[in-house]
Backbone:
């Protein structure tokens, strides 16, 4: 199940926001050992202060199993303001029709086999939700920065974005800036991945999108 | 939106350097698209001295007066969900279970604001943020269809309006620099290639070709790819020689 939380409404969803920051800490800090700031068991940075749009994937017990955040490229965002070396000619990409997704994460356990359906479902749900949000906001593309491990995982499932340039080593991590085109083709690719699990993702995502301003 | 109209609107907006001027330009176009009012509000604008808010609305004087006297700025549900958010807001999606919100929309409609509305949040790189709104008196079903057709154009209009507002503040405009990939895509477009053909030439997918074309369009504040090509040529950012741009020595003046 997808839950969409505008950053300025985080106080209405304290448990989900808490779980998201802790999940980010366990993935980015504890497991991947990225150089991220941890405050009071939360991984949190300056972009969280800009009230991004949070997109969370919840399991049947309403626990956060994955998430990402969206920011328009016209304002401050990670690609332009933290990783400009990933941009072609280091020129800012700032279009009202291109948003940035960052801090994409899904819960991992030691035994990938046991958690595999959960991981694929969360990844697929988040992918479909991104496309639906992209359509709702009339976007052409979504740009994102991720590492080599994520790129390989998404390449295997046929859902990798296309790199905008060669990867760069940042903080000891091979890092890519990639773009996705919003539209029906993306839906088809993600549904192929979603074929691994049984729920009707489109309905779940659309219902939550429609309800986003009612909650 | 008719392509010719849209081009004319964006082209006129790109020369506007006052907020009221930009609003007048939009008002001359919007009746033809079934739109009724236009409103723009921005906070933290880089005006000389200290940052300050900018406001320009085409609403009736009665509504503006009533809004101010009722202190509606503090409960306006559109401002509350739009300013500071990032998703475009269709007024029809706003929760009206609260009687105060119902009263607000009722009075707004009575004082000719418009039956339906769409508000587009804006965020800028100087830390400014704003909300661009259009309203319509079309019935709900027509409005939904209209919105679907108009929303992408309106996103572009909103940001070009905002660019005019920034110019009105005297914010220095940075010189446009086209990254090599964007310049290559535009040059092949000028030579009549399709996105797929350009992708093959450059070794990237047509998706990424369109990414570069959209990025270049936003850089040059244009309406579409043809407009972008024309402006890039006019500004000397691309030329039609078959040599790569960066290998051509610049002419001495």
Residues:
């Amino acid at each position: 199940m997808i839950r969409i939380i505008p950053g300025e409404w985080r106080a209405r969803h304290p448990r989900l926001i808490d779980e998201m920051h802790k999940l980010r800490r366990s993935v980015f800090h504890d497991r991947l050992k990225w150089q991220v700031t941890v405050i009071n068991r939360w991984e949190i940075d300056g972009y969280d202060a800009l009230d991004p749009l949070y997109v969370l994937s919840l399991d049947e017990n309403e626990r956060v199993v994955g998430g990402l955040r969206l920011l328009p490229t016209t304002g401050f965002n990670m690609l332009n303001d933290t990783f400009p070396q990933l941009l072609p000619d280091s020129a800012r990409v700032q279009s009202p029709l291109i948003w940035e997704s960052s801090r994409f994460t899904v819960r991992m356990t030691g035994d990938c086999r046991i958690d595999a359906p959960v991981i694929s479902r969360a990844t697929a749900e988040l992918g479909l939700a991104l496309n639906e949000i992209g359509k709702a906001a009339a976007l052409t593309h979504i740009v994102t920065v991720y590492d080599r491990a994520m790129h390989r995982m998404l390449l295997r499932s046929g859902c990798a974005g296309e790199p905008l340039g060669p990867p760069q080593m940042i903080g000891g991590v091979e890092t890519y800036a990639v773009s996705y085109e919003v539209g029906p083709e993306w839906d088809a690719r993600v549904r192929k991945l979603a074929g691994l699990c049984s729920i009707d993702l489109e309905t779940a995502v659309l219902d939550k999108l429609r309800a986003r301003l009612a909650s | 939106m008719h392509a010719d109209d849209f081009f004319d609107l964006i082209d006129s907006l790109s020369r506007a350097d006052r907020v009221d001027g930009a609003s007048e330009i939009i008002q001359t176009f919007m009746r033809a698209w079934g739109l009724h009012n236009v409103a723009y509000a921005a906070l933290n604008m880089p005006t000389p001295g200290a940052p300050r808010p900018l406001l320009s609305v085409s609403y009736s004087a009665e509504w503006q007066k009533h809004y101010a006297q009722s202190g509606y700025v503090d409960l306006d549900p559109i401002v509350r969900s739009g300013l500071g958010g990032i998703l475009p807001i269709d007024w029809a999606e706003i929760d009206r279970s609260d009687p105060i919100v119902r009263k607000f929309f009722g009075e707004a409609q009575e004082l000719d604001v418009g039956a339906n509305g769409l508000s587009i949040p804006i965020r800028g790189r100087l830390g400014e943020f704003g909300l661009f709104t259009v309203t319509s008196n079309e019935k709900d079903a027509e409005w939904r269809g209209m919105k679907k057709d108009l929303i992408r154009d309106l996103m572009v209009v909103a940001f070009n309006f905002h660019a005019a507002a920034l110019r009105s503040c005297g914010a220095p405009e940075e010189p446009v620099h086209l990254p090599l990939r964007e310049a290559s895509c535009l040059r092949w477009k000028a030579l009549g290639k399709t996105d797929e053909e350009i992708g093959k030439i450059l070794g990237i997918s047509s998706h990424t070709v369109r990414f570069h074309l959209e990025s270049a369009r936003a850089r040059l504040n244009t309406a579409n790819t043809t407009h972008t090509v024309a402006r890039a040529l006019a500004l000397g950012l691309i030329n039609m020689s078959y040599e790569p741009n960066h290998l051509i020595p610049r002419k001495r003046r």
